[in-house]
Design a protein that fits this description.
Number of strands: 14
Shape: globular
Strand content: 15-25%
Distance between the termini: 59 Å
Strand order of the largest sheet: 3-2-1-4-5-6-13
């Protein structure tokens, strides 16, 4: 491995002037150059200096903007990306859709022994990056971690939080997550998220082809029966929500973490971790048991569910053809029934929005029941993760806390490689950090299930 040269910056935020990027800058400034933070040097990067300067001014308001360097780079100009990566310890990539623009950034980071975090929720991109770059990233000492935002850290840490409530001899079998998006005004999503969903449908065959070309990953052994398929539309009375299956990245990312954990039952050792952290890591993973996991999108009303199904049908049907994709991306507000628009939500709409993600775990009060052939879980634990608006508030909070952990606890993390966030950050204090920054983890109930 080449000896890396000293870095000029701790973090460069790439795509800082984009819809999400500017909120990432605002979040980063909260931790910039303060005594308790490892973030001492920061730069912003993108294609347009003027827009980046305007972003810094907006993110600093009402204070004057700090003296932070502004750098230019473009995903179509690989040398500019290599210049970025050679100057920093870590790049936070906010330029999506990642299947179109992410690969050159990852390549530049890996070749420069620079670390890389992004806010991607695109399974095909994440799995392709692992396939192409994992070996090289290990060799170069570069950590590459996608899905370090609302996709998919709440799902990963939420599952682990629920799993850790099952104290022996109790044993979890399945966990279903129910995502409820709420707002005092109107729920409006990021156009980039809509575009990624449309492109995901268009490239579904590529994901299947990629998976067929790769060795099969280890599958965790989950005691007890697989959960029944269930109804298309579910009424989850205990949390007061109607729900339908959500084809998101969350379940896929969770499965990648569980596969890595199956291959490494004590987690991934740090490149130079302390004995205290080794014990902490091994203890943490001994408390996390694999479970069948799925995600559903939820609404307080049945009408809301039918609206979700309608939008899903538009994307699923029209996303398969070039003309259909053109229509979807030209008129997002029409085909999303008002949930997505090109200009994104207003600041008031962002501030008024929030999310709740309920984790309904079912399992056995005594693991001996499984060996006795008891086929139905007799115990249920419900937990919840809750926080502010998902795309512009929760995502920057998560991304920055992951970045600060990487900077401050580098020795306790693996040498390098391409990983999902859960296997890397699970044993760290990420959950505590998120709770300190407005994202809560709560146990709602523990109960016995009647036959």
């Amino acid at each position: 491995m080449a000896t890396p040269t000293p870095s000029t910056y701790d973090i460069i935020i790439f795509g800082a002037s984009g819809f999400t990027g500017k909120y990432v800058v605002r979040e980063a400034l909260k931790f910039f150059n303060i005594p308790s933070s490892p973030l001492k040097t920061l730069a912003l990067a993108g294609r347009n200096r003027n827009k980046l300067a305007q972003t810094l001014k907006w993110a600093s308001h009402p204070n004057p903007p700090p003296q932070i360097p502004i750098l230019t780079a473009d995903t179509s100009d690989p040398p500019s990306l290599r210049r970025l990566a050679s100057q920093t310890k870590l790049i936070l990539n906010c330029v999506g859709p990642f299947r179109l623009y992410g690969d050159p950034v990852v390549s530049a980071c890996v070749d420069s022994s620079c670390h890389y975090l992004d806010i991607c929720g695109e399974p095909e991109f994440m799995e392709r990056m692992e396939s192409i770059y994992h070996g090289r990233a290990v060799e170069m000492g570069s950590l590459v971690v996608s899905a370090c935002g609302f996709d998919s850290v709440p799902a990963e840490l939420g599952l682990m939080f629920n799993s850790r409530q099952w104290v022996s001899p109790a044993l979890v079998n399945r966990v279903e997550a129910y995502l409820s998006l709420e707002s005092k005004k109107k729920v409006v999503g990021n156009f980039g998220t809509f575009e990624s969903a449309v492109l995901g449908v268009a490239n579904a065959d590529k994901l299947m082809e990629l998976r067929r070309s790769r060795p099969r990953r280890a599958r965790p052994v989950i005691p007890g029966p697989a959960p029944p398929k269930g109804q298309t539309v579910e009424h989850q009375k205990k949390i007061g929500l109607w729900a339908v299956k959500l084809p998101s990245a969350d379940a896929i990312v969770v499965r990648r973490t569980l596969a890595t954990l199956t291959e490494n039952p004590h987690g991934l050792p740090g490149v130079n971790e302390s004995p205290e952290h080794t014990e902490k890591r091994e203890t943490f993973w001994s408390m996390v048991k694999p479970a069948h996991f799925g995600v559903k999108i939820a609404s307080k009303s049945l009408l809301g569910i039918f609206r979700l199904i309608t939008v899903g049908m538009f994307i699923g049907l029209l996303g398969k053809t070039s003309v259909g994709r053109w229509l979807l991306l030209k008129f997002p507000s029409i085909f999303s029934l008002g949930w997505f628009r090109k200009k994104g939500p207003s600041e008031d709409e962002v501030e008024s929005a929030s999310f709740k993600m309920w984790f309904v775990g079912q399992g056995f009060s005594d693991n001996g029941l499984v060996s006795q052939g008891n086929k139905k879980p007799d115990m249920e634990i419900i937990t919840r993760v809750m926080g502010p608006e998902i795309g512009y508030l929760t995502t920057p909070i998560i991304l920055l806390q992951c970045a600060l952990i990487l900077l401050s606890e580098r020795d306790n993390l693996p040498k390098g490689g391409v990983f999902p966030p859960g296997i890397l950050f699970g044993p760290t204090n990420l959950q505590d950090r998120l709770q300190e920054n407005g994202i809560s983890f709560d146990v709602i109930s523990k109960s016995t299930l009647t036959a």
